[in-house]
Amino acid sequence: MKKITRLSFLLVLGSFFVFSACNNAGGEKKKAKKMAIVVSTLNNPWFVFLAETAAAKAKALGYETKIFDSQNNTATETDNFENILVSDYCAILFNPTDADGSVANVKKAKEAGVPVFCMDREINAKGVATSQILSDGYSGSVEIAKYFVEVLNKKGTYVELLGITGDNNTKARSSGFHSVVDNYPELKMVAQQSADFDRNKGMEVMESMLQAHPDITGVFCGNDAMAMGAYQALVGAGKEKTVKVFGFDGADDAVKSIKENKLVATGMQFPKVMAEKAAQFADEYYNGKRDFAEKIPVAVELVTAKNVDNYIGFGKK
């Protein structure tokens, strides 16, 4: 009787260890089917669309979701990550506030076994985020710059409104633009200033630029929110007919403004593609996949009055 009891005990114990090994393959504990969506700000329709699209795709794949707003503040972003990492989320779909300042948060998530999939904005670190799905802002701005040169007839003075200085998208868009425009000596930039990708700041910066440089003929803005703010300032100064405004994003109000001959052009990003791909990758990770491309570029398309009827806000018809 004792032998039978001992044998039964050993069989039960062995089954327990086999079960534990299967349930923690690779040392990973299966997390709840919950995805966190962290975006830099919800004070911009573009990022609202990005967040809501990511959440909708994740829900369609069977996950609970919650959207976190970092309010363009790395400290708030850190608080968001801390809340997420103690709440058993299985993945983070992430739009960083700062290419350098956000690295530490992604590292913490990786150490906690939570994969991070960056959307639209990247972090300046390799091997930290599981994958980064990013607009090709440099190439998109090259195409905008070519059209800028054409519309301004290769001459005149212009100003540039930059986005957030710590964001790689700001650098990529400005660099792509200047890689073309700087080859035309009769096109002269007389002012360049950050307006933080914000519509109200775009209007304020444009108002101040107009006081110093009333005779400009063009404005390149690093996103559509600033472009709409700049256009508003031009209307206030009675210069909306003589100064050509170029944006970047493909926001709904920008597309409508191009149709109404207000804005001249924008670069159409595809947030739906980035958001849905991030959610899809997170689902694949949850189900065991681990080999993801570290960076995936998404093409940007030039939208002008010539082709605007092919587009809607944030995408093609």
Could you walk me through the main structural features you see in this protein, from its secondary elements to its overall organization?
The protein is of the alpha/beta class. It is 44% helix and 20% strand. The protein is built from ten helices and 14 strands. It has helices at 2-23, 45-60, 74-85, 103-111, 137-151, 168-181, 199-212, 224-236, 252-259, 271-286; strands at 34-39, 64-69, 91-94, 116-119, 131-135, 156-162, 187-194, 218-221, 244-246, 265-268, 295-298, 301-304, 311-312, 315-316. The strands form four sheets. Strands 2-1-3-4-5-11 form a six-stranded parallel sheet, with helices on both faces. Strands 7-6-8-9 form a four-stranded parallel sheet, sandwiched between helices. α2 packs parallel to α10 (271-286).
What's the helical proportion of residues?
40-55%
**Fraction in beta strands:** 15-25%
What is the average of the pLDDT values? 92
The biggest sheet amounts to: 6 strands, parallel
User: Pairing-aware structural class of the strands and helices?
Assistant: alpha/beta
Strands across the major sheet, in which order?
2-1-3-4-5-11
What series of H and E elements makes up the topology?
HEHEHEHEEHEHEHEHEHEHEEEE
The total count of strands amounts to 14
Shape: elongated
Q: Uncertain spans, ≥5 residues at pLDDT below 50?
A: 1-27
Query: How far apart are the first and last residues' alpha carbons, in Å?
Result: 77 Å
As a whole number of angstroms, the C-alpha radius of gyration is: 24 Å
Number of helices: 10
